[in-house]
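Researcher: Good morning. I'm working through a list of sequences from a screen, and I'd like to move beyond sequence-only analysis. For each chain I'm collecting a predicted structure so we can compare shapes side by side. This is the next one on the list. No need for commentary yet; just the structure.
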Amino acid sequence: MKDLIAGLNKVFESRVRLGIMSILMVNDSYDFNSLKESLDVTDGNLASHLKALEDKGLIQTKKQFIGRKPNTSYCITEEGARSFREHLIALENLIRNQ
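Model: Good morning. Structure tokens for this chain:
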């Protein structure tokens, strides 16, 4: 059993982080409020998960102003995309081998 779960990445165990990464894999970037609405989470909850992913180098933050309003958006890094694909492959292998 150990070999079956060895490829799973602990960073993606949270459903919120899994959701963030899934959204960023298929979008060039996504802003904070859209992520919050899509995942139905609080500001604080989302912010802590985004920080954890950013600290690991899996996502990047872009801060800008749209008009006079601040806007924070996120995109996945090459390392993030590679790590997430490996995690998905490990999940598929786990399902197939059961």
